[in-house]
Amino acid sequence: MVSAPFLVSAPGKVILFGEHAVVYGKPAIAAAVSLRTFLLTTRNAAEFSDVVTLEFPDVDLQYSWKIQSLPWNAVPKRSIDTVRPPSELNTALMEALERGLVAHLSPLQRSAAVAFLYLYLCLCSADMPGMTLSVRSTLPIGAGLGSSASVSVCLAAALCLLSGEVSPPEKKGEGDGDFNAANYASIELIDAWAFLGERCIHGNPSGIDNAVASHGGAVMYQRMSKGNPNVREAMRNFPPLKLILIDSRQPRRTAVQVANVATLLQNYPLVTEPILNGIGALTSQAYKLLLMPKGKCDDAWEEQLRELVRVNHGLLVALGVSHPKLEAIRMAADELEIGETKLTGAGGGGCAITLVRRDVEESRIFELKQRLDGHGFEVYETSLGGFGVGCLFPTNSNAAEWEEWEEKLFSLHHMLGLGDREDIQKTVGVGSIDGWEFW
Ligand SMILES: Nc1ncnc2c1ncn2[C@@H]1O[C@H](COP(=O)(O)OP(=O)(O)OP(=O)(O)O)[C@@H](O)[C@H]1O
Ligand SMILES: C[C@@](O)(CCO)CC(=O)[O-]
Ligand SMILES: [Mg+2]
After folding, report:
1. Ligand 2 mean position, distance from CA 22 (Å)
2. Atom of ligand 1 minimally distant from the CA of 140
3. Which of 17, 134, 162, 416 is found 20 to 30 A from 322 (Cα to Cα)?
4. Is 151 in a helix, a strand, or coil?
5. CA dist., res. 308 & res. 383, Å (int)
6. Does the keyword Ribonucleoprotein apply (predicted)?
7. 209 catalytic per annotation
């Protein structure tokens, strides 16, 4: 059990191949991005010791609940011989939460508040002191980069730390290499709780987004049925890919896009199943390509990868999850012969990625960026495959910085503009403050 204040952080992700099909048990490939969510947990002052406060300034939400008035009676009893939470939400608890506690909030705010309350009630107890949990993200919200999963992972990590379900990361010992069994168990537990947060936010998640946000790096992920453990293959020697990440700035909700594909599958199973199988098959091909030793990543290799990007996007269009703005991005990149483009994440708006040909001159990339900017789209600079969930505690040596970034992160109570985002990344970014520890 740790005491506040402390900070946790988790990354967003880019899905390179396989979104939507991954919900139906097909493989998908995703990597962590350098844009991240940060969650600060602080102890409330004495006059607020009986409330838990949630501050989600990115979605304009600040709300306090009296701890004693929360529906503790509806919380399912945990089985004493299982550490991991069940993978299904408890219906009685969900009903108790949605009945009155969050009814007045907008859908954007409500799903995040429900995720928080669900995890808080399951992981904490009615006698916990009053706390404030403040969340800020440098990820665009609802744009396909896994903002919901990075929030869920941060909530799960903070609440697991508060309740003592996980301990802060252990320093890796000599001979441990990258692996430490206790840290691995902690990440698995945070991931499992975050999956329930994702369920609160978008109904039927595959689990790939929270897996990447908690473990970091790049993974091939496959959801298994009938209680079998999901496949999560870390892809360690992920080749450096030249990607442009573009946000169409068309808002959409993953829950809606996933539900639309479910309806298509229900109405036209004979048509939709082969599309999902096709996405699964092309992802398996891409997986083999991405595992090739560096020496074999020649022009032909690159060409095949780009082809798979193009086919993947075509199949997503067939599923009905593209958007005219995403098509405009794809057409601009096609016209300038920059590479192949696909939507990433749930689609219906949000982001696209262009896998850039290695031989393209910088001037053409510059022109693409200018055209996209003219359409009001936003181009992100990000690197792939970074750290997963981590935490930072104030120490004597970082006390001065602690105050500086706390101010930077949490005093800006408005939606992030690009300037703010870059500023925050630079100031608080993992790697720029000493003391961040990763499980
Ligand atoms: N910074 C944030 N503060 C509070 N809530 C957030 C924040 N970021 C995301 N959320 C929650 O996540 C929801 C958006 O999640 P959604 O799954 O629709 O999109 P995404 O995760 O950005 O994209 P994708 O799932 O395609 O990767 C919001 O409605 C909100 O509930
Ligand atoms: C659309 C989807 O496949 C990816 C969202 O990032 C949904 C999921 O896997 O949970
Ligand atoms: Mg999401």
Report:
1. 7
2. 22
3. 416
4. helix
5. 21
6. yes
7. yes
The residue from 50, 209, 298, 334 that is catalytic is: 209
Q: CB of 33 within 8 A of CB of 145?
A: yes
What is the best residue among 141, 208, 210, 256 to mutate for testing ligand 2's pocket, by most ligand atoms within 8 Å of CB? 208
Structure tokens at 374: 């003219």
Ligand closest to Cα of 207 equals 2
CB 197 within 8 Å of CB 151: yes
Report DSSP state, residue 174. T
Instruction: Specify the pTM.
Output: 0.95
The Cα–Cα gap between 65 and 110 comes to 14
Q: What CA–CA distance (Å, rounded) separates 163 from 179? A: 25
Tens digits of residue pLDDT in 111-132 = 999 999 999 999 999 999 999 9
Mean pLDDT of 233-245: 91
Q: Give the number of the atom of ligand 2 that is nearest the alpha carbon of residue 18.
A: 3
Q: Which of 40, 60, 147, 321 to mutate to test the pocket of ligand 1 (most atoms within 8 A of CB)?
A: 147
Is pLDDT at 96 greater than 80 in this prediction? yes
Minimum mean pLDDT range among 312-326, 395-409, 410-424? 410-424
Identify which has the larger pLDDT, 70 or 409. Answer: 70
Handedness of CA 207, 209, 215, 221 (dihedral sign): positive
Closest ligand 1 atom, residue 13 Cα: 27
Residue 188, judged by CB atoms within 10 A of its CB (0-12, 13-18, 19+), counts as middle
> What is the Å distance from ligand 2's center to 262 Cα?
12
Is the model's pLDDT at 138 over the cut of 90? Answer: no
Question: DSSP letter string over 292-318?
Answer: S-GGG--HHHHHHHHHHHHHHHHHHHH
Task: Look at the block and give the residue holding tokens 């697991």.
Answer: 160
